[in-house]
Amino acid sequence: MFSNLIWMFVLLCSSVADENSIRDADIFPSSPEIERGSSVELSCVLRKNYMPQRNASHIIWKLNDELIAPENYNIVNETVSNITIHNFTYSTAYVECLMKYLDKELPLVDTEVKSGFRPDMPENISCIYFYDVNLTCTWNAGRETSFTTNYTLYRKLMSSPDTVGSCLTTTESCSFFYPDNVYSNDFCFQVEAKNVLGSSLTECAPIPLQKIEKFAPPEILSVKKIPGIKQLLVVTWKMPEKIIPLKHIICQVQYRNLYSNFTEFVNVSLNSKKSIGSCNLTGLWDSTDYSVAIRCVNNESAFWSGWSGEKNESTEEKAPSGKVDLWRVIESSRSSRNRSVHLMWKPLKSFPPSGRILGYKIRYFPENKAAHKSTNNSTEQKMTLLLNEEAHIISVTAYNSAGESPEAILRIPSPDEKSSQMIEKVVTSTTNEEVVVQWITSEPETTKYVVEWYEELEMDPFGRSWQYVSNSTKWKNNKKNFKPFICYNILVYPLYGSNVAAPSYTQIYAEEKKPSEGPVADTGILGKNEVTVKWNEISKAKRNGFITNYTIFYKPEDGKELNETVNSDVLQYRLKSLQANTQYTVQIMASNKAGGTIGEPKTFKTLKLDKEDIFFIAIPVEISILCLIGLWITCVLKKHAFKKVCWPDIPNPEESLAVEWPLASSVNNSFLKRMSSQTKTVDFEEINVLEYCFPEESQEGSLLINYENHVSECTDFNTKGITNRDEKILHNEENEAAKSFSPSMPYIITDQFTTSQMHSALIPVKEVQPIEVVANDLCGSQQNPTKNEENDDEEGLRLEDFSKKPLFNPYLKNSVKTREFLVSESMPEHSTDECKSQSGVLPPFQPSVLGQSYVTVDMFSLAKGQ
């Protein structure tokens, strides 16, 4: 078994080694060219020795990589295999011979097979004879053969079968050049076509050279007008030199009106012996330019010469017959005396035209001063005049060498004139090809109008266009006369005579597209739930159409986009129902008929609180502040009253010197009687007297102050203070005294006493009656009871000892500065016995009595009313 494997390996190696040699083969015929639709037979021949496994029976054939059916194969022997392909219709195809061995297809050899047709017989032979230059013949070759075809042109004598000359070519034209192009009328021409499949030959066609002669174009010498003769031009030309000397030649003169582009022809016969030709062109238009060209032909030939070069000339002129189209643009008056008037005009396209315009004459004068006429000349079709405030008449005429045209007249009104509005409405529209303007007039008798149009951004007054319209209220113009995406101003002026009425104005876009940019949004006053969005109009150069509306797109952060649409005249909008303290993005889109463009985004954030919230918060705060301010002012103005009510002056009894004073069980009422007639005001700082009063609840434990032990203390006065004190008589009503009394006050302080009056008494209070305290002149009047009451004051002013230092209570010193003593006259008098009977001495002041109520002398007036 091992030996079998080795043998198979050897066979494989040998087969691989001989592979290249088996591929060597030949194919016959190589690159065959056959007639299309016929059959082709090919043979594949193996070159070298073959093994039994490889011979012609293993050969296969392919056409354009497609296997040919085996029934078309023919095995001639072990080295040759034939193939027959029937009805070959490919123009070009590849046939390949291959060896099939061990399931492999090994290419051997291939070839290219072409198919085509035999050449058809050439047809329509024609020749052109250029005298003494060349003889050229052309023909039609017929269908395409797919093979290279060679053509031979034979020139033969009709009287002899000999060939005079021949011409070889692969195209459908061939020429004989001098000297082979000998002139003779005894020639015939024959064409042969040949390719690999065969050939074809035409019959010899006789062609006389005079019938195929073609001249070179003649040369125009001049085209002239004759002075004084209108509608006439004279044309002169020269014939070419190399032509067959024949008797008759025909020339054709073509003249064309340059204004109407209308062409006419005139035929002129010439003798061939003449080298110069001439012709008069009549019936032409006055003052009209014409273009003239000429061609000629032999009267026996079928071929005209080429056209000569054109030459232009104008007929005799006449004065222009039509008025110019005159228009004006009046500039706003910068001065009260001068204004600029821009005149524009264009020649009227009359038919036939009047002639060549040499220039224009502009005449103008004040309406009421015809003698002050001015004239300007211009070769251009515009002029600017500087006129004063008067109304002017302006006329423009065109002139040429024959005269002037009729005047075109316009009246320029004064600045103060106001013309009526005759046109009520102007409507514009567009179609696929035209711009249409229609208007409605209130004056039906007006039959002439001027339509003026110009770009909205055009600043040059001479950049405007205009057109007169008669007997119509509708005007059309081609869209090509308007730029796309540009706004045009259109004005319609009614005319009556030479006057121009007030215009009606409108705008139009011949073609629109969406704006080049969108508006830029800006936010105004921010609120809690609303904001005002503002934007500016897009510049006119970038609108590209009429803005129809604006759309506001706004979107909260991480929210849904909303939008609002407003009219084109709205440039700000208040967005409502927004979320408080939220960031928004807003964009504005401007739209026209062609679409919309969105501007750049703008972000804003709503407020936490709006004005109303702040207002409701501020009102209570402001009211509270005002109340506090009012309370503070009240406290400042009434601080003494508030102090007396809220913080009464309560002396410390432990620190008072009055605790050592004797208390009397009764007080001489005679002193009160004397006090009723007068009121004394004594400086509180000079005298400090403390009198004790006990409430009704303490009547049984009334204390008596030893009067004699404290006479010296009562008489301790400040001499300076006594001498300088002011006296003040108070007339207080009893009810006022009652108001000043406060039952809560525990004691009465009397500061104003003389040395003789420095005695105090504590009067027990009965039931709930106000305590009556009387500062009696114990030191003076009680020791002398027999003296009259009128002398009580003088006695009270006596000082026992002015050398003694007055005693001042440091606590009571800061009390009320003055005290008023009001003594009731109705009080009972007390005898000197009552004063003397007060010999009892109370024990010293005990702390246990500090809880008793006291009444100050400030409330003494209340006692008067009891």
From TrEMBL:
Secretion signal, residue range per the UniProt entry: 1-17
Lineage top rank: taxon: Eukaryota
GO biological process terms, semicolon-separated: cell surface receptor signaling pathway via JAK-STAT; monocyte differentiation; positive regulation of cell population proliferation
Transmembrane segments: 614-637
Keyword entries, A-Z: Cell membrane, Glycoprotein, Immunoglobulin domain, Membrane, Receptor, Repeat, Signal, Transmembrane, Transmembrane helix
Location of the Fibronectin type-III domain: 217-318, 322-418, 514-609
GO CC, alphabetical: plasma membrane
UniProt topology in membrane: Single-pass type I membrane protein
Chief location of this protein within or outside the cell: membrane
One Pfam family from the record: Lep_receptor_Ig
Annotated compartments: Cell membrane
Entries under Gene3D superfamilies matching the protein: Immunoglobulins
CDD domains for this protein: FN3
PANTHER family from the UniProt entry: INTERLEUKIN-27 RECEPTOR SUBUNIT ALPHA
Family the UniProt entry places it in: Belongs to the type I cytokine receptor family. Type 2 subfamily.
Protein's recorded name: Interleukin 31 receptor A
Source organism of the structure: Serinus canaria (Island canary)
Taxonomic path: Eukaryota, Metazoa, Chordata, Craniata, Vertebrata
Protein's gene: IL31RA
